[in-house]
Amino acid sequence: MIRLSILIDRVKRVAFIRPEGLYLVLEIVPLANIATHAIESLLDAAFEPERKRRTSYLIRANQPWLPALSFAARDAAGFFCGQLQCTRVSLTTPEGDVQPITFVGPLAVLPSHQAHGVGRALMGALMSAEERGLSDTDAFAVIGDPDYFARLFDFSAALTQGWEVPGPVDRHRLLAKTTRVGGLPCVARLGPPMLGTAPFALARTSA
Ligand SMILES: CC(C)(COP(=O)(O)OP(=O)(O)OC[C@H]1O[C@@H](n2cnc3c(N)ncnc32)[C@H](O)[C@@H]1OP(=O)(O)O)[C@@H](O)C(=O)NCCC(=O)NCCS
Q1: Measured from the CB, is residue 120 less than 6 Å from ligand 1?
Q2: Which residues of 78-114 are buried (b: 16+ CB within 10 A; e: fewer)?
Q3: Which residues have CB under 8 Å from 102's CB, separation 6+?
Q4: N or C: which end of the chain has fewer CB within 10 A?
Q5: In the 8-state DSSP scheme, what is residue 20?
Q6: Domains identified in the chain and CATH numbers
Q7: Bridge partners of 82?
Q8: What is the mean pLDDT of each run of 10 residues along the chain (207 residues)?
């Protein structure tokens, strides 16, 4: 597949040309351009009904998403078809050192639009924003499929094996990446900034 990306000011347009001739143009815009009810409807369509019980929601704990690092995708007809939210959370070490980290997700694409590169374009917009200095952290974490986030975006479960999270998680799906000098703490709690200091149970069952 040949992919062409054109960056136009703050709006990103992505064209995909497939061998079979399909052609899809996406527009990546700030998520702030999209109404809250439309975002919720898209998340309802992409995830199971119990999505808000996921450990990811406990890690974010209703923290607002970051406007500079959250994006929406519109298809060639202008239809809202995908979104990516990022939230500022914390890594807290046993010594009480608190480090900011950007929690990636939910990343969601309408089922009708999946496997056409929309998720990749949204993640590309995030990586591009980070390269342009729009992120005030140099570390990212996500709970997701390693075959997607590790293979395509260099996230690694090796960085998170000593981390605690406030709910059940498949350890191989707890992923991180960083350019931070000295790396990330091997042992830490990942959670919302104001979380108390009591240790979490280190959950190893699936979410
Ligand atoms: C996961 C998701 C965001 C991917 O978005 P998408 O637009 O369908 O994926 P893309 O077209 O960008 O995929 C790019 C590549 O990843 C692959 N891929 C897609 N979803 C994948 C998954 N869950 N696991 C592994 N690989 C995946 C595609 O086959 C494609 O591979 P290729 O480039 O080798 O052909 C989307 O399927 C989705 O919304 N799923 C439900 C919600 C979810 O699970 N979100 C992730 C956790 S927050």
Answers
A1: yes
A2: eebbbbbbbbbbbbbeeeeeeeebbbbbbbbbbeebe
A3: 66, 69, 86, 87, 88, 89, 135, 137, 139, 140, 141
A4: N
A5: T
A6: 28-191 (3.40.630.30)
A7: 73, 109
A8: 42 56 78 98 96 96 95 95 97 95 98 95 96 93 97 97 97 96 95 60 37
Nearest-atom number in ligand 1 for the CA of 147 is: 25
Confidence (pLDDT) at 192: 92
Q: Can you read off the two tokens belonging to residue 187?
A: 């042992």
Phi/psi at 37 (nearest 5 deg)?
-65, -30
Residue 15 CA to ligand 1 center (angstroms) comes to 17
Question: What confidence tens digit (pLDDT) does each residue in 111-160 have?
Answer: 999 999 999 999 999 999 999 999 989 999 999 999 999 999 999 999 99
Give how far Cα 164 sits from Cα of 32, 59, 70, 138, 191, Å: 31, 10, 25, 20, 9
Helix, strand, coil shares of the chain, percent, nearest 5, are 25, 35, 40
| Nearest CA among 187, 91, 88, 74 for reference residue 136 | 88
Question: Residue 154: left (phi > 0), alpha (psi -120 to 50), or beta?
Answer: left
User: Model pTM?
Assistant: 0.87
Residue type, 136: D
Q: Give the Cα separation of 63 and 60 in Å (integer).
A: 5
In angstroms, rounded to a whole number, what is the distance separating the alpha carbons of residues 41 and 55?
Answer: 20
